[in-house]
Design a protein that fits this description.
single chain, about 210 residues, mainly beta, 12-stranded parallel beta sheet, 12 strands, about 5% helix, globular
Length: about 210
């Protein structure tokens, strides 16, 4: 599902097996709601070899939820199994409505995802993750040492909060926090009640 220059987005009860991008929003202002989403990887159960090759590609390339500019997004009950990125916050590409996203993400489960949450650009509001469970890893492919639960490289949010949940299986850092614009970074970055079981450092790095 791709939505550009849309407002008052309301996606609800979507189940499917998206190949490359599950949901992509770019240039959407005001309140956007994404509720009760279930993405998996079953494409061709009749042919195991075909299914395996497709799943391998999806694991290396798929993004489950991509937000390039979405104001006050509200994500509730979001599940995705297998992919390269679970949730991606990136810079908007539409003239006049560029910038990052902000909002709240509640009850999120990202299972066997190489990078659970990739943050390249946030907006001016708060970004809050509550009760998020991430199993960082690779499905039907070779595990990579850069697997991580959170990879944060650019942050302009008023407050970035991870409140409740777990990170497991990460071969890299559980949380990699190394914004390139550190001097203009978040007013606060808070992690609470979030357990990390990672092969790498397993703790916030690059602060």
């Amino acid at each position: 599902i791709k939505c550009s220059r849309c407002q008052y987005v309301d996606f609800e009860e979507i189940h499917g097996n998206p190949l490359s991008i599950g949901i992509s929003i770019d240039g959407s202002l005001d309140v956007n709601r994404i509720t009760d989403i279930f993405f998996s990887v079953q494409w061709n159960e009749a042919d195991a070899d075909v299914n395996r090759n497709i799943q391998k590609w999806m694991s290396a390339n798929r993004t489950c939820l991509q937000l390039k500019r979405s104001d006050e997004v509200q994500v509730l009950n979001f599940f995705c199994f297998a992919g390269n990125k679970g949730i991606e916050l990136a810079n908007g590409t539409i003239t006049g409505v560029t910038g990052g996203s902000y909002g709240r993400f509640t009850n999120v489960s990202l299972d066997t995802i190489r990078t659970g949450v990739k943050i390249d650009k946030t907006g001016g509001g708060s970004v809050v993750f509550t009760n998020i469970d991430i199993n960082a890893g690779t499905w039907q492919g070779t595990a990579v040492d850069t697997d991580s639960c959170f990879d944060i490289t650019n942050n302009e949010s008023v407050a970035l909060v991870i409140n409740g949940g777990a990170c497991r299986g990460s071969r890299g850092d559980g949380i990699n926090y190394a914004p390139t614009n550190a001097e203009n970074g978040a007013v606060s970055f808070t992690v609470s009640d979030f357990s990390i079981n990672a092969i790498g450092q397993g703790a916030t790095s690059g602060k």
